[in-house]
Amino acid sequence: MATKLLVTLAICRLIVTVGFTFNPNDLLRLGLDGKLSADPADLEAASVDFGGLYRAEPVAVLYPATSEDVARLVKAAYDSARGFTVSARGHGHSINGQAMTTNGVVVQMSGGLKNKVLTKVSEKLMYADAWGGELWIDVLTSTLEYGLAPKSWTDYLYLTLGGTLSNAGISGQAFNHGPQISNVHELDVVTGKGELLTCSEKENSELFQAVLGGLGQFGIITRARIALEQAPQRVRWIRILYSNFSTFTQDQEYLISLHGKPASQKFDYVEGFVIVDEGLINNWRSSFFSPSNPVKFSDLKAEGGVLYCLEITKNYHLSNADTIDQEIVILLKKLNYIPASEFTTDLPYVDFLDRVHKAELKLRSKGLWEVPHPWLNLFVPKSRIAEFDKGVFKGILGNKTSGPILIYPMNKNKLDERSSVVTPEEDVFYLVAFLRSALKNGDETQTLEYLSNQNYEILKFCEDEKINAKQYLPHYTNQREWRDHFGEKYWTRFQQRKLEYDPRHILATGQRIFMPSFNPNTATW
């Protein structure tokens, strides 16, 4: 009775707010196994995200128990005369309100299953089937019971499968295995018409490619079949420093060119970061370095006041531990880093993958996690990365930052051009990620206003210099910007896919790509 009353209240709230002509009893008869809530605490939780920059309160929150729950809700929105919007929310790690909606329902995918179904693993076929709201850390825990693990990762594992696959899912393994969207065999997707469809390369292939990197515009991922490999036991984690940007990028590009080589002849992970602030090199991201022997700019002759750190790993099993040292020595001999700047540690594979969560716990203990995060992620063409370094790292940033700045190259041929992800038109491009936190500590350079303005300066620099950078986890506010992001060819394809799979523009309106169109005879954008 209490559940039915809660659902009725949520439906009434929808009617009052959006005024759609729909019989409330029809929603009660949808047969939802999960919970449709209008509880203020649930609405508040769905109104914010990790970015802390936007706020939008939904009318209700659905905690689905099954894929069918999601399909029934979306079908109700699609069939209703006036309609309402539906946005899937995972772990709430978006930056600019992309998973939010007003005058609609948020589907809380993580933690929503009534009877939690563990990830199903096929040892023989080397894949895992998991709920779209499952966290990657939980998928890892399940697959490790069979000595297996997904091939490609994000740096932070407390994200949902549906969330990362709707963007791309990238980390230092992407040069070799491709992003997470390149390691998916099959999906179950609820389209904007309320259809629950299984899709893959062979079945509903256009939907499959559209949803991967599709920013939630074409469907809600309720199940993903992820490719697995034998899980390593340990990781040799190495950091080496550079004072010359050209040398740094040449070495990074050389390492990712080895992607086709046998495992013994390449590293398994290639990332890097920029150090524009001497304090940053020994902070939480770089706690890798010994506190008793801190790294100093003055000792390393930083070019333009900037240092670059190459971060690489070699995975191994205890059975081949005796050969790992020699393999690393051979690889490092090809690199031109600052002599005596090599820092190495050895740790279990899981500890390496979960490294950022440990940093999170430290920041939470200091009250520095739940603060605004005006992050900016860019894909920069290889041919323009030197100009970007000069104009941004050695220019706009002014030797001051308030968080890590990642930089590492990826191979474009590791992404399927049929997916919805947009990258520069070059064989190699760089991820540059400004992962900064806004703080109220009296330092103007760490305020939200200052960092947001600096992000604008970086984007303006790219536009003025015609760098042709593309935003990853993109955020735009008008049609012209989205068109420029996709380019005419891919924008046309994106529009066509939207018309096919979400013609009423019900899904993921927080992305601000398409305005809701609840009159079937009216098209927008």
TrEMBL record:
Signal peptide span: 1-21
Entry keyword Cytoplasm: no
GO molecular function terms noted in the UniProt entry: cytokinin dehydrogenase activity; FAD binding
Name the record gives this protein: cytokinin dehydrogenase
Entry EC number(s): 1.5.99.12
Catalyzed reactions per annotation: N(6)-dimethylallyladenine + A + H2O = 3-methyl-2-butenal + adenine + AH2
Keywords: FAD, Flavoprotein, Glycoprotein, Oxidoreductase, Signal
All copies of domain FAD-binding PCMH-type, residue ranges: 54-231
Cofactor: FAD
Domain of life: Eukaryota
Family: Belongs to the oxygen-dependent FAD-linked oxidoreductase family.
GO biological process: cytokinin metabolic process
InterPro entries, A to Z: Cytok_DH_C_sf, Cytokinin_DH_FAD/cytokin-bd, FAD-bd_PCMH, FAD-bd_PCMH-like_sf, FAD-bd_PCMH_sub1, FAD-bd_PCMH_sub2, FAD-linked_Oxase-like_C, FAD-linked_Oxidoreductases_BP
Keyword tRNA-binding in annotation: no
